[in-house]
Amino acid sequence: MASPPTKQMILQLYHATLKTSKTFSSYNFRNYFVDRTKDVFRDIQKENDPARLTTMYGDAVKELTVLRRSAILNQIYGGWKLAVEETPKKPEDILQRGDT
Amino acid sequence: MQATTPMDPRVVDAMMPYMVDQYGNPHSRTHAYGWEAEMAVEEARKNIADLIGADSKDIIFTSGATESNNMIIKGVARFHKDKKKHIITTQTEHKCVLDSCRKLSEEGFDITYLPVQQNGVVDLDVLEAAIRPDTALVSIMAVNNETGVVQPIKEIGAVVRKHRGVYFHTDAAQAAGKIPVDVNEMNIDLMSLSAHKIYGPKGVGAAYVRRRPRVRLEPIISGGGQERGLRSGTLATPLFVGMGEAARIAKLEMQRDYAHVTRLSQLLLTKINSQVENVVRNGHAEGYPGCVNLSFSYVEGESLLMALKDIALSSGSACTSASLEPSYVLRALGAAEDMAHSSLRFGMGRFTTEAEVDFVCEHIIKTVTRLREMSPLWEMVQEGIDINSIDWSQAQH
């Protein structure tokens, strides 16, 4: 059986996953994967059972490869800016159809 | 979310190989391309089966929940037509169930449309009383697509199981992957599933058809005998793989997703209720939290839609569809015509953010306040006039 990942390995993977998550162009996916990465690694951090930890780490490694590909695809096709992303969040500041 | 969902990027990634390189037909048994595709389809089938606690051989791929519903309702009824002539469903079912039943009634079947209680839930005693010796099928949806009402499927399954020869079908397009569903624990014989409600691709769904004890149905589509002869036609490998991956992720993420939409729907309700009065929530408050259906009294429904439609479009946010027709589902719940007219359905899902909910709330509050300021009805209500006491026909002259 593979030996459990070291603290440093986990930290590296966390940073790589977080960085990849932030490169999604689409607002919703970007936010989701950033939040989820934090949750997943918080769980990994809490895990004490070495066997469980190895599986969780393995899953996270696999997921990073998926995320990397998905993020590239999303940069190519995705990311039209939503009104909710604009800085002035007040409704009256947002142009509606018919406004000039 | 219940209108539709965006495809999860992880689902797209799983589908890509089958659109780029692996174009084999899963039914070609003579070469490796075919085997690869077959393996992928079977893995997808297993993931879907696992989501609902079924055996993977019981899963039939279709083009979506509408096809599954048609196939099951018409198929079971027509197979047993010599001995059985009766089908039970509810008034709040999805259109494709109601319309399949209407078609069957033209063919001479007797259909009972059960009423629902004011909270949208079926009364089990009423259901049991409606079952007859010649009943072939009971079809009741698990989660309502307009109100989020969750039916007591386990209890309904137990009632139907008591009657030998009556099959229980549930349209679980809105339930599977969002709340726990188990075909054995709930005594479900047939089930319809959809991929695009669980962050999978559009144009694909599945039917669960129990093999032990065997449920027999007459196929609608004839041909090469694929999918146990129930749904002929070349399998759409990329779509099935996508649905399988969506099901796998849905099972893994169910708890997290549920907690997320619960938090969002509480945020939405508290925010709107704190600033707008006379808001009625349609359906059982204990329903699926990802679907919130609200009626805004004294606001003309169509104007509300017009004002909000642009916003939903421009923000691409969580606020989803509402039809101009007063909803038959809401009327079945006993909602007055005007309330059914001014209802809005909010769908929240895995990818909805708190900022979006805040954004939509601000717009709703602003729009409803503005429309009420313009409304003569609202003015009368403020002055303490009971709207229902007015005889409108005289005012026309």
Structure explained in plain terms:
The complex is a heterodimer of chains A (100) and B (397). Chain A is mainly α. The longest helix of chain A is centred in the middle third of the chain and has 28 residues. The termini of chain A are far apart. Chain B has 2 domains: 242 residues, Type I PLP-dependent aspartate aminotransferase-like (Major domain) (Aspartate Aminotransferase, domain 2, 3-Layer(aba) Sandwich); 130 residues, Alpha-Beta Complex (Aspartate Aminotransferase, domain 1), CATH 3.90.1150.10. Chains A and B meet through helix 2 and helix 3 of A and helix 1, helix 8 and helix 11 of B. Chain A: This is Complex 1 LYR protein domain-containing protein.
Provide tags for this entry.
A: 100 residues; mainly alpha; 3 helices; elongated; B: alpha/beta; Aspartate Aminotransferase, domain 2; Aspartate Aminotransferase, domain 1; 2 domains; 7-stranded mixed beta sheet; 3-stranded antiparallel beta sheet; 10 strands; 43% helix; Complex1_LYR_LYRM4 (chain A); Complex 1 LYR protein domain-containing protein (chain A); Complex1_LYR_dom (chain A); ISC_assembly_LYR (chain A)
Task: Give a quick rundown of the structure.
The complex is a heterodimer of chains A (100) and B (397). Chain A is mainly α.
Question: How are the SSEs placed, and which strands pair?
Answer:
The complex is a heterodimer of chains A (100) and B (397).
Chain A: H1 7-21, H2 27-46, H3 50-77
Helix pairs in contact in A: 1-2, 1-3
Chain B: H1 9-20, H2 32-51, E1 59-62, H3 65-79, E2 86-90, H4 95-106, E3 110-114, H5 124-130, E4 135-139, H6 153-161, E5 167-171, E6 190-194, E7 205-209, H7 237-275, E8 279-281, E9 291-296, H8 301-315, H9 328-332, H10 337-341, E10 343-347, H11 354-374, H12 376-382, H13 392-395
Parallel strand pairs in B: 2-3, 2-4, 4-5, 5-6
Antiparallel strand pairs in B: 1-7, 6-7, 8-9, 9-10
Helix pairs in contact in B: 1-7, 2-7, 3-4, 7-11, 8-11
